[in-house]
Each structure stands twice: as structure tokens, then as C-alpha cells.
Specification:
The complex is a heterodimer of chains A (478) and B (161). Chain A is an alpha/beta fold and 478 residues long. Helix content of chain A is 40%, strand content 16%. The longest helix of chain A has 38 residues, at 429-466. Chain B folds into two domains: 7-66, Arc Repressor Mutant, subunit A, CATH 1.10.10; 78-159, 3-Layer(aba) Sandwich (Glutaredoxin), CATH 3.40.30. The chains are: A alpha/beta (478), B alpha+beta (161). Chains A and B meet through β5, β9, β15 and α14 of A and α2, α4 and α5 of B.
Chain lengths: 478, 161
């Protein structure tokens, strides 16, 4: 049976646990930092020597940690891309712009255990020779920003930050930078532009890979809040021990944000892949099932940008048989292990690990219209396919939800959605706004067509009623 | 209205500038600081910020016009922001927004922030506030409220003196 496994949220919800330094220290806080700073040079069998920071970077690779923000990219690999020979300063930015609809995990860490994030950041900065770091927190979390500023102040007072940290000769400063209500700032190059004091227009890659040409054209690491917290635990446990948590290639834990129509919405930390989508939705320890009398209709499995899953869908998942041979196993949507790879095989993603559950009371056209309105509002406007496409999709969906639909709207929507992603835009927002439309249409097209057809029929009736005997007949009869 | 920076704002802004190796990076934080004190950002404030950061006013103005949280005109004393996005919508956000608008004599179907004629409240639908598990959620100024029923909404409004 699937269980919660609390690594990152171990203390956050304990009674009496407070976000201040004293409480964090009482719970073993900053021990990992002390361990990291004191790592002796390691002699390798081939005669090479590994410094402390190099050992941490190596250990993060060994841990298999994948980014918790959305893309699930290997953290160790991301760090390995950093240009360390340019002679320019290296910056680290914590992406705390948690804005993907459905996601509310970083909020828990920031509000309840800010020092865990800061410790993870200091270790990550030390490992990457970073002297200046920022926490980019979304503007709508003023309380979170205040808590982080207070925690940074406490960390400076204890010399975990500042000059000559704990007598090691290592200097690091860290500041909080607030966004102001723009989802695009969660895209790492948009975030960098925003931090530089410009409009957050994402940069084109190549050449502007943050690891090479990031903040002020210097090498820059951008990591999610939860990812950075994990670094602390990798140092505490060792990369190899950390990798035992979760499942192969999907290591560690993830905080799953569960919302929508379940009895117990909330955040649940699990070992990656050790609970299925069905368990997360129905198990009394997690979502506790749907409301009485309701049946499952659809699941958005990894934040609003991920492709929707339909109740009853089956997928062929790669598994190993008893002899280690790869076989395909038919798997129901509810039996999908909640991890990066299984959801990718089901044609979607675990993204920011945010599940939105919809039951049979939901108007699926309305649900997509809601998301489309979000994307139309949040497109930064830099690339034409995304700026225009997101608005057109929204306009079409709004007319479908306001009784003005047409039967061919479903095809029209699909055509627009197919012409936004796939390298036509600078950043992945193009994909993010199209995927919901493409997947809702692929799985619930009849509902879109029916809605458009019903609107047409109603209009035809009112026209023929109002203008009987005239030649106005814009809509072909069935 | 001409913009007059207080010594306190001046000190705060100088501190913010010191956080960055490039002055321009402070612009968003400076605009936050101004809006926190004055409630909105006037053209004079844009000029002042540009001067402070060695920028052209357009460099500051283009930020002001991009970010939804930054305001170019005075707002109500209490700013009510109701989350509109899917999980909150499933949890009754539209009904909640409608409730506020009906109580305050505003048009629930109108786009963008709306301020009551007495200048007391500004009501606005905003995108995902990242607390989808406790839908519907909303903010009044910097204060955050979860699981807001209509009764709780009335209580919150009643608390705004």
C-alpha cells in the first residue's frame, strides 16, 4: 500500500514547528551545511583529487535528482553544463515563482520551513562556487517574501551567509526578489530578464542557455524550491542513499499537490513512483476518493499545462518481466505509477506534480475555457503564434461557453493549437498553452462538437422564428 | 499630484539597489516599494525611479505596463483579489467573485479591477494564487484567505473598516 513519505515536509506540519532559526536548529538544521563545508579533499583511484564542491556535484548526479519545477531535468546534469572556465561570476537563482495552476507545494516549504530552502541553497551555491544568489518569489506571496527575508537575516546573524562563512573563507550573499503577477517569470530565461529589471520576455536558446549566458550574461543556475531543498538531503544521506528512495530513474520524494473534486485535497509527499494516480485520488490517506455519487471524468496530472487524462484510458507501459526482458503491460490510467517516466509514457507529464481531479459534474468545455483564459492572459506576447494563438483559442472557447459556439469550433481550435508549438515560439509557453487544448480535444471532442451544434441549432431556431419567410439561413439544417 | 519620496522610501530604495551589481535589476523591487507606500505608481514616480536607477523613464514604464500587480492609478483602500483559475473555479470562485460584486454594486462580468464609488474596495479576478487545495482562495491586500464561503466573505468585508 502506498504511504506518505516525508523527507522535505518532515517537520513542516508538526505541532509547534515554527519557521524561525532556533526551531530549525533544534531539528538538526544546518548540520548538512556544516558537513558540506567540511568535506575533505577526496583522492580518487586514478590519482585525481576531488574538492568538496566537486564531491557534492558528483553526489547530486549519483542521487538521480530530477528538477521538481516541471521539466524533470537531471539536476546534476544541469549543474554540469555550467561554464566554470569563463572567469565570470556564477549565479544561482531559486525559482520560487510557483504559478502553474494546480501547484501549491513550494508555498508550504517557504511558509513553514524557509531555512530548509536556504540551507539547500547555500550548499548548492558552495558546490557551484556561487557568491551571489537570489530567491525569485512570485509577487502574490508577500508573506512568503517576508518570511524568507527574516530567515535570511537570521542566517546572516549565524554566519551561515555573508563573509567567511563559518570560518571557511567562503563568501555568499542572498537576496529575495519579488515578481509582480506574471506566470511567464517561471520560465527560467524570462525569470532572468525579470530579475535584470526588464520585461520578462524569454530568451532564445541557443545561445542564451542560462548555464552559459544567464543573469547579466554570466553562467547561472536556476532551480526550483523543492529541488534545492533536496540537495540538503542528498548531502545528509549521500547521493547513493538518496537514490534508494523512489524508483529507478525517478528517485527521491515529491510533494504532490492534489486539488479539484476529491474529498481530501491537499499536499502529499510520496516516494516518486511508489503511489499510483488512483491511490493518490482514492486512498483515504490521500485524496479519499470523489464526492458521494460522483464518477471520475478527467485528471490533469502535472499542472495545467500537462495533457489531460480521461477516466478509463489504457496505456502500454514498458516493464521488465521476470527474466529482465522488456515487455509492454496494459495499464489503466488509475494504475499509472506517479512518476516522471510512467506519465511520459502515457503521453503526458508529471510536470510540477500537481493533480487536478474532475468528476462527471464538470463541463469539460468550460474547464478548458477556464485554462485557456489563463494562458491568453499570461502569454508574454513576444512570439506571434503564442500571443495570437492563445487569444484566438480563448476567444473561441469563450464563445463556446457563452452560447455562441459553432459545430466546427472543435476543428478550428485544434488547428490553432497545432500551429503554436513545435519550435515556432521562443519558449515552452507555446507548448503549455496548446497541450491542454490538443489533449482535451483528442479525448473529449464529442462534447465540444455537441456544444457547438446545440448553439447552432438554437440560433437557427431563433432566426427562423424571428424571420420566418425570409431567406436568412446561415446554418445548414441537419 | 507630484511625487515626493520620503526619506524612508529613499533609504529603502538605496538598500534595494545595493542588492544587485547592476542598478537596473532593482527596478521591479523599487516599484513594489513605491506602490506599497503610495498604493499606485504615478508618472512622476516613474521619472523618479528612472533617475534613481540611471535609466530612461521608458525602461521603468515598460515594466509598469507589463506586470498585472503594478498599478497606474489609485486603487480602493482594500483590494480584493479572487483566484479565478481552474481548481478555484471548480471550488466556487466565480460564485464568490459574483458575491463580492453583487454586495458592492460592481459588474461581475466586467473585465479587470473595479473600484467602488466610495473608493473603499477594488475587486479583481486574478490568476492562480497557488493554494489550489483550499479553493476558493482570495487576498485582501497582503492578507491571504482560504476556503472562502460566502459567509466568510461577508465577515472579511465586515472586517474592512
Amino acid at each position: 500500500m502506498a504511504q506518505e513519505y516525508k523527507l522535505i515536509l518532515k517537520h513542516a506540519d508538526e505541532p509547534g514547528y515554527t519557521p524561525d532559526m532556533e526551531c530549525y536548529l533544534r531539528h538538526g538544521g544546518y548540520q548538512a551545511l556544516k558537513k558540506a563545508l567540511a568535506l575533505p579533499v577526496k583522492d580518487l583511484p586514478d590519482g585525481k583529487k576531488l574538492s568538496g564542491p566537486e564531491q557534492i556535484r558528483e553526489d547530486v548526479k549519483v542521487s538521480g535528482l530530477r528538477g521538481r519545477g516541471g521539466a524533470g531535468f537531471s539536476c546534476g546534469l544541469k549543474w554540469s553544463f555550467v561554464d566554470r572556465k569563463s572567469g565570470k561570476p556564477i549565479y544561482l537563482i531559486c525559482n520560487a515563482d510557483e504559478s502553474e495552476p494546480g501547484t501549491f507545494k513550494d508555498r508550504q516549504i517557504i511558509h513553514k520551513d524557509p531555512h530548509q530552502l536556504i540551507e539547500g541553497m547555500i550548499i548548492s551555491c558552495f558546490a557551484n562556487d556561487v557568491k551571489l544568489a537570489y530567491i525569485y518569489i512570485r509577487g502574490e506571496m508577500p508573506e512568503g517574501a517576508r518570511i524568507l527575508n527574516q530567515a535570511l537575516k537570521e542566517a546572516r546573524a549565524k554566519n551561515f551567509l555573508g563573509k567567511n562563512i563559518l570560518g571557511t573563507g567562503y563568501d555568499l550573499e542572498m537576496h529575495v526578489h519579488r515578481g509582480a503577477g506574471a506566470y511567464i517569470c517561471g520560465e527560467e530565461t524570462g525569470l532572468i530578464e525579470s530579475l535584470e529589471g526588464k520585461r520578462p520576455y524569454p530568451r532564445i536558446k541557443p545561445p542564451y542557455f542560462p548555464a552559459i549566458l544567464g543573469l547579466w550574461m554570466c553562467p547561472t543556475i536556476v532551480n526550483n524550491v523543492e529541488t534545492l531543498c533536496n540537495v540538503k538531503h542528498i548531502v545528509t544521506l549521500s547521493g547513493a542513499e538518496f537514490a534508494k528512495l523512489g524508483t529507478p530513474n525517478n528517485t527521491g520524494t515529491r510533494i504532490v499537490s492534489l486539488s479539484g473534486q476529491v474529498k481530501r485535497p491537499g499536499y502529499y509527499e510520496i516516494e516518486v513512483g511508489k503511489a499510483t494516480l488512483g491511490e493518490l485520488i482514492n486512498d483515504p490517506k490521500f485524496g479519499g476518493g470523489l464526492r458521494e455519487g460522483r464518477r471520475l471524468k478527467a485528471i490533469i496530472p502535472g499542472g495545467s499545462s500537462s495533457k489531460v487524462l480521461k477516466a478509463g484510458e489504457k496505456f502500454k507501459l514498458k516493464k521488465k518481466d521476470a527474466e529482465g526482458k522488456e515487455i509492454l503491460v496494459e495499464t489503466d490510467v488509475l494504475d499509472l505509477p506517479y512518476d516522471f517516466d510512467s506519465l511520459a509514457q502515457a503521453g503526458t507529464m508529471s510536470g510540477s506534480s500537481a493533480i487536478i481531479v474532475m468528476d462527471d459534474s464538470v463541463d469539460i468545455v468550460g474547464a478548458l475555457a477556464n485554462l485557456s483564459e489563463f494562458y491568453a492572459h499570461e502569454s508574454c506576447g513576444q512570439c506571434t503564434p503564442c500571443r495570437e494563438g492563445s487569444l484566438w483559442m480563448n476567444r473561441t472557447l469563450q464563445r463556446l461557453t457563452h452560447g455562441e459556439g459553432r459545430r466546427q469550433d472543435a476543428d478550428y481550435l485544434g488547428k490553432i493549437a497545432d500551429n503554436i508549438p513545435g519550435g515556432r515560439t521562443i519558449c515552452a509557453f507555446g507548448e503549455a498553452c496548446s497541450w491542454p487544448v490538443q489533449s482535451f480535444l483528442a479525448k473529449f471532442k464529442d462534447e465540444f462538437v455537441a456544444k457547438g451544434a446545440a448553439d447552432e441549432a438554437r440560433r437557427a431556431q431563433s432566426i427562423s422564428g424571428a424571420a420566418a419567410g425570409t431567406s436568412v439561413a446561415p446554418v445548414a439544417p441537419h | 499630484m507630484s511625487f515626493q519620496a520620503t526619506p524612508q522610501l529613499e533609504a529603502e530604495v538605496n538598500e534595494l539597489i545595493s542588492h544587485y551589481p547592476v542598478k537596473r535589476a532593482a527596478s521591479l523591487m523599487v516599484l513594489h516599494a513605491i506602490q506599497e507606500q503610495f498604493g499606485w505608481i504615478s508618472q512622476e514616480a516613474v521619472q523618479w525611479t528612472a533617475k534613481k536607477l540611471d535609466l530612461q523613464p521608458i525602461n521603468v514604464f515598460e515594466i509598469l505596463t507589463f506586470y498585472p500587480m503594478l498599478r497606474q492609478e489609485p486603487q480602493g483602500k482594500y483590494q480584493i483579489k479572487v483566484c479565478r483559475t481552474l481548481s478555484c473555479a471548480l471550488g466556487g470562485a466565480y460564485e464568490l467573485h459574483h458575491h463580492f460584486c453583487a454586495k458592492l454594486g460592481l459588474d461581475a462580468h466586467k473585465h479587470g479591477p473595479q473600484t467602488t464609488s466610495d473608493g473603499k474596495f477594488t475587486v479583481e479576478f486574478v490568476e492562480c494564487l497557488a493554494s489550489c487545495g483550499t479553493a476558493p482562495v482570495m487576498m485582501v491586500g497582503e492578507k491571504f484567505y482560504e476556503g472562502v464561503s460566502h459567509a466568510k466573505a461577508d465577515e472579511i468585508m465586515g472586517g474592512c473598516k
